[in-house]
Amino acid sequence: MNLKECYEALGGDYEDVLGRLRTEKLVQKFVLKFLNDKSYELLCKSLETGDYEEAFRASHTIKGVCQNLSFTRLYESSHQLTEALRAGWSEEAAGLAERVKADYGRTAAAISEFQKGLEG
Amino acid sequence: MSKEQELKQKILIVDDSEMNRAILTDMLESEYEIIEAENGVEAVEIIKERKAELSLILLDIVMPKMDGFGVLEVMNKRDWIEDVPVIMISSESGAAPVKRAYEMGISDYISRPFDSTVVHRRVVNTIMLYAKQKKLAALVMEQIDENEKQSALMIDILSHIVEFRNGESGLHVLHIRILTEQILRYLDQITDKYSFTQEEITLISTASALHDIGKISIPGEILNKPGRLTKEEFDTMKTHTTIGAEMLENLAFHQDEPLVKEAHAICRWHHERYDGKGYPDGLKGDDIPISAQVVALADVYDALTSERVYKKAIPHEEAVRMICNGECGTFNPLILKCLNDIADVLPQKLKESTPGRTNEQELQEILENKLQPKDAPASERTLQLLERERMKCSFYASMSDEIQFEYTLFPPMLTLSDWGAKRLELPELIMDPFQEGGPLYSIVDKGDIVEFLRILTDTTPEKPVVKYDCKANISGESRWVRIVCQSMWSFDDESRFTGAIGKVVDIHESRMRMDALEQMASHDAMTSLLNYDYAKKQIQDLLRERSGEEYVLMLMDVDGIKKANIQKGREFGDKILIHVADRIKEAVGANEIASRISGDEFLLLTTCDMDMDMDRAASRIAQAVEGEYEGYRISVCIGMAGTRHMGTNYNVLFHGADAALRAAKKNGPGQRENYQNLISTRAEDKL
Question: Chain A contacts of B112, Cβ < 8 Å?
Fold first, then answer.
């Protein structure tokens, strides 16, 4: 699985990210870093404890990172969650949170697959 | 700039996502040194510490602990926003946050996702723009600094020329500057009356260095004369104030420069005194610019505490005490309070300097001006001249029998010249001289003292001279004296009466001669009655001033004097006339007038009450003079004219009395006739 295939798997826009960050090497570097980002952990934790302000910031950060990496699918869901959480906890937010979790899982799986290919 | 700084400018990236920071870092780290902060609080700490090093801040909005707007708020409050440009980064898409961020002073705004070219270009542009601005500002500052340095340098050179020529310590100007600055700074703290900005304090302190530039035109012989200056030399010395001011007035340019204006005020007025007794303009109180007041005090303090050829430096504490006690001139109480309050720290402030060369003149001038409470300092020669004048006056006074005196209101004291005191047998000093029962009252009547004081206190500065004649008891003899004196007035605006100086002249002999002359001029030599001219004048005065009283004018003729002259000799005739005159004198009262007008004719003016017949008035006189005199029987004829019927015109009355007298004489000796009766008789005859 190459980087472009990885983007296809996680629902991202490879052309777009390459256009902004210029080199495949740089894109690869940040894509691999994505798994180390603590924002997703923070989001899950704060949703569990009901700290929705913290959940909003975590969701906002995920959205920003996805924006920068052109992870379009996760960006869409995290963006909608962020806007929902801006107004506080709601039925809609709960549904969007589930969607973000699903999209994040898919994204993380794709990157792990790509990383294995590099190591292997 | 150091080499590392020159190599890489620093950018602070503030974002809570390590990922985002990493992306930005990657885009910029080849050209810039990157510092990272993961929230607003961390960012503020870094900005506070390393503000001067930072070329740019990239700031995220949504962050934990403190968000991007929080950071901007702090930067605005502390004015950091002026020093470091900020580029805002956010995925926030609405217009409101962008607008708000621009209002808070950001330079640019980058929205996610980052395009490395765009980020790079914007970062570079912003940094360059700020760098240019900073460089320009630095250039301007440098220019200003240079200008200030150069004016300060010029001022130092100028004032040192003066000091050098003055043989003065090179530290004088430095001390004045430090003292002036310290006093102004403190003055600004303790009162709202005067307030100074830091710039004004610097300006005045700098200008203080020029206070003595006028001395450049004072001749060296005077400036560096060893020993005391004469009055004339001191007068020349004094002109350094006005000359210094003129030098600045004559500058071709810079007339409106605040420094020139301050220096002008200081040059001209740093020898004025708070009580108005200084020079050149005699300004008083806060009419003297506060800058000049402060420099004047600094000048005195430094003169006192510096060492001179003829004196050791007065210790700091002693100098402060002397100045505060008013021993060195009068100063604004607020400035004295400053000196007193900051006295403890002053020696420390002046410590770096040590006393240098000496300047006798400077101290002498200041001390002569400030130490003496009197208006002008008197040189020894002036004092000698004064003493000589005093001796001359005293000598001439003894020659002319003058008693000289000086009277002062405060203290109430009369000082007599020593010759005068001996002559009057009084002490030379009399305290409370006009207190009743004092020694003066044994010399002059109380009435005269009261009247004299009334006239004296009625004088004005324009008409100060009083002449007063009275009798004085001198060595047991009552003699006429004339007091001539001039009232004295204070020199301030109010012109208060402060006393008098004058002399007492013995005019007894001349007064007696005058009295005799007056007697001769107005009186008949034989009978000592008034002569006709004088009597006429007196009668006219009396008639003019009469208030309700009626008078009778009488002409009286002594019968048979020609016969007596022939029978018993002319001398006997004269004796009879003298006898008659004496009897008349006894008969007439205070408001009546009697005179011999010629030969045996007398003129009288007597009072005549409303209810009194005119004939009775004539009878009173006739009875007084008629009778036996050495075997000779005296009788008189009298003609009368009364004011009740004829009015007060002298000529009318005189002609009436004359006609009545002629009518009386026709009827034989001892007759009396009233002009009023004469007219009625004639009227009856006609009928």
Answer: 64, 67-68
